[in-house]
Amino acid sequence: MKRILVVEDNPMIVKSLEFKLRQEGYEVLVAQDGRQGVELMENNEIDLLLTDLMLPFVNGIQLIEQAKQKDPDLPIIVLSTSKQENIIMDAFNLGVEDFITKPFNPNELSLRVKRSLRNAD
Amino acid sequence: MNDYIKTVSNGELILHVNLFFSVFFSLVSLLLVGTILYMRYRKLRENRKIQKRREILSDFMMRYLFENPNDEQAIEAHQPQNNLQLRTAVQVIMEFVDNFKGESLELLRKLFYAWRLQKYVQHKLQSKLWYDVAQSIYISSELKLEEMREHVVKHTNSTRKEIRQQAIFYLINMAQENPISFLHQVDKPLSVFEQIYIKDCMDTQYTGVIPEFGEYLEHPLESVQIFALKMIAEYNQFESIGEILPFLESEREELRIAAIESLSKLEYPELSERIEQKLPSEKASVRSHILRNLKRKYSLGDFQNLVGLIPETDYKNRVLHFNLANSLRKESKKLYI
């Protein structure tokens, strides 16, 4: 079973993603801030990281940097409201696979997760 | 203590009064503390109820959105019954609406109607509290509730700017064509912020044909006319140039300035000639706009000649002319090199 780490500070989104991804047959780990995200990443093997960019304590870019240091091939999907081009470019330069803007379509997100995991295999 | 009671009962008035007020204020304090504690307890109980209700609703909505959206029985079983449940249901649905789009958004709209929440929103739209009204208009915009239109239109003339902004957002967001037709009913001047807000809403929310702004040049409000002048230039509506020209002769200085700026952006070829003639007689505030516009069109020599048209008493614009001529000189040197 593929394991996905979701890092997002909006409890409603966390709950929805957890529900949706579990329903799709994934094992889901959730963190509501960047620090917790780093801890979960260090203590668990994950197959995909789904993260927001604006996070408390450790921001999304720092989290992506750490994830890529640990596993350069880890597929990462960013889910964010940020429309700042420089932040989005930073994320892509770090090797982010996909970028989804909020508000988002949960079915589309699910398809993108599937595609990213398939590409990583 | 006995001596004290004896002294009091022996009847010194001041002691009687003292005792009366001590007892009275002690009772008032107790009553006050009691009321505060009771209110706090009620609030905590209400918050607990809301929290519990929110959890029940969000669990239900996960299943509704991602598992079985056609479970009529479950929808009916979660039907909000009282005011608190209605308020919580609207809040939870709006949290989902803010984050989801596509099929999920359509399902949320369906659920909103299934729970008959539109009646609650309509009721709040008629509230005397401005934040209830503003929030109801926001909900109507996000869920595209067409039936609220006639109630929302009235609020474009609200005395609260927050309500006016939400109403503008709703009307532009809902429009299929002519998104600013509500301006015909507006009788409160548009602030600069509202003008920018309307433009922003048109760029981000409206996908139809851009309206003819020339239609609003005859509006009784100066602020709407200025907005129309700016938008004509913004959207390159050259066909309205003929309607702008009379504004160069307007009695209102703000309108003359807006007309100059608009015609300049539209690159109206006769503008320089027309405004140069006005330099000696115009007000100082308009004169500075004329100078800035002529600087863009004139060669250094022609621009320098304009100094004779600026009255000697208008020191500020003479300095401005000097500075603009200097920058024109630098620009022409760069061009030459």
How far from one another are the termini of chain A? 13 Å
Number of helices of chain B: 17
Shape of chain A: globular
List SSEs of chain A in N-to-C order. Answer: EHEHEHEHEH
The total count of helices of chain A amounts to 5
CATH architecture of chain A: 3-Layer(aba) Sandwich
Strand content of chain A: 15-25%
Given helix and strand content, the structural type of chain B is: mainly alpha
Largest sheet of chain A, in brief, is: 5 strands, parallel
Total beta strand runs of chain A: 5
Number of strands of chain B: 0
Poorly predicted runs of 5 or more residues of chain A = none
| CATH uppermost class of chain A | Alpha Beta
- Specify the overall morphology of chain B: flat
- Order of secondary-structure elements of chain B: HHHHHHHHHHHHHHHHH
Strand portion of chain B, in percent?
Answer: under 5%
Number of domains of chain A: 1
Instruction: Please state the CA-atom Rg of chain B, rounded to the nearest Å.
Output: 33 Å
CATH topology of chain A: Rossmann fold
Average of per-residue pLDDT values of chain A = 92
Description:
With 121 residues, chain A is α/β, with parallel strands linked by helices. Chain A has a single domain, classed as Rossmann fold, CATH 3.40.50.2300. Helices cover 48% and strands 19% of the residues of chain A. A five-stranded parallel β-sheet of chain A has the order 2-1-3-4-5, with helices on both faces. In chain A, helix 1 links the parallel strand 1 and strand 2. In chain A, helix 2 packs parallel to helix 3. By secondary structure, chain B is mostly helical. Chain B has a domain of 58 residues. Chain B is 69% helix and 0% strand. Chain B has 17 helices and no strands. In chain B, helix 6 packs across helix 7 and helix 14 runs antiparallel to helix 15. Chain B is flat, with a radius of gyration of 33 Å. The N and C termini of chain B lie far apart (107 Å). The chains are: A alpha/beta (121), B mainly alpha (337). At the A-B interface, helix 1 and helix 5 of A face helix 2, helix 4 and helix 5 of B.
